[in-house]
Design goal:
Elements (H helix, E strand, L loop, with lengths): L9 E10 L2 E11 L4 E5 L6 H9 L6 E6 L2 E2 L5 H7 L1 E4 L11 H11 L6 H11 L15 H13 L5 E5 L7 H18 L2 E5 L3 H7 L2 E6 L2 E6 L1 H4 L3 H8 L3
Parallel strand pairs: 3-8, 3-9, 6-7, 7-8
Antiparallel strand pairs: 1-2, 1-4, 4-5, 9-10
The structure holds adenosine-5'-diphosphate and magnesium ion.
The site of adenosine-5'-diphosphate has 11 residues, from β2 and α1.
Length: 243
């Protein structure tokens, strides 16, 4: 490798995570390149959310190594990782349901130490994510698709280098999922942010992702182009639950 080659945006090396006797991640490698959407798929319980938790610093890993643009963040707190550019959304929406759209986005701006330009940043995010008409609406009154959009806007407030999105299409209808697909493509293009996208909805992941990686029982069983994943016998078998 040439010394001039830039480091990977996100690099996960040989990560193991155990819960007592359960090996949720059994030595996972994963690379997210600059400006790419990497789809992470796999059957229920294969370790996808655990990997997101380990990358975002919600929980420590048992062993291995995680680096952001070449900096080893393995032992950093979640707050330090967030400030360095690792942002995430949650499988179950985690918004302040009694606050308005703009107030929820403000929370993200404050957390990112951008409070000095708060109103400007909130306005810009709302404009870019098509949320301006909803600025004063209380989040609990919005349909799921819009709530998901608010959560993504909040995550983008810190100008992340990598956005980890765990099952964003959960609870969305087909039209909302189609909007989400456009939104995630825009995020990559407009915010220069790499995306690690987890979802069960293959119409979403396989269309948005540049590459996909498949997990099964905490191991990587495929890395490659979206079109090729389900041409692999082992990927199909993992989904069908064939040992
Ligand atoms: P996925 O997101 O792919 O459905 P998870 O990462 O949630 O999978 O789970 C992977 C494995 O780790 C499962 O066997 C699950 O039961 C286990 N696991 C996940 N989180 C915990 C936890 N906090 N405590 C104990 N076991 C857990
Ligand atoms: Mg999960």
């Amino acid at each position: 490798m040439s010394s001039a080659a830039p480091p990977d945006r996100l690099s996960v090396r040989n990560v193991v995570r155990r819960f007592g006797g359960v090996v949720a991640l059994a030595g996972v490698d994963l690379t997210v390149n600059a400006g790419e959407v990497l789809g992470l798929i796999g059957p229920n319980g294969s370790g996808k959310t655990t990997l997101v938790n380990c990358i975002s610093g919600v929980m420590p890993i048992t062993s291995g190594n995680i680096a952001l643009e070449g900096h080893d963040i393995t032992r950093w707190s979640r707050v330090r990782r967030a400030k360095a550019g690792v942002a995430r959304t949650f499988q179950n929406l985690q918004l302040f349901r009694d606050l308005t759209v703009s107030e929820n986005i403000e929370v993200g701006v404050n957390a990112a130490d951008r409070a000095d330009r708060k109103h400007e940043v909130v306005r810009e995010l709302m404009a870019r994510l098509g949320l301006e008409p909803l600025a004063r609406v209380v989040v609990s009154q919005l349909p799921n698709g819009h709530q998901r959009r608010v959560e993504i806007a909040r995550a983008l407030a810190g100008r992340p280098k990598v956005l980890l999105v765990d099952e964003p299409a959960a609870g969305l209808n087909d039209a909302e999922t189609a909007d989400l697909r456009v939104l995630l493509s825009d995020v990559r293009a407009e915010f220069g942010c790499s995306v690690l996208l987890i979802d069960h909805d293959m119409s979403l992941v396989l269309k948005v992702a540049d590459r996909v990686q498949v997990l099964d029982e905490g191991r990587v069983i495929f890395v490659g182009l979206p079109d090729e994943a389900f041409q692999q016998k082992n990927v199909v078998e993992a989904y069908l639950g064939i040992a």
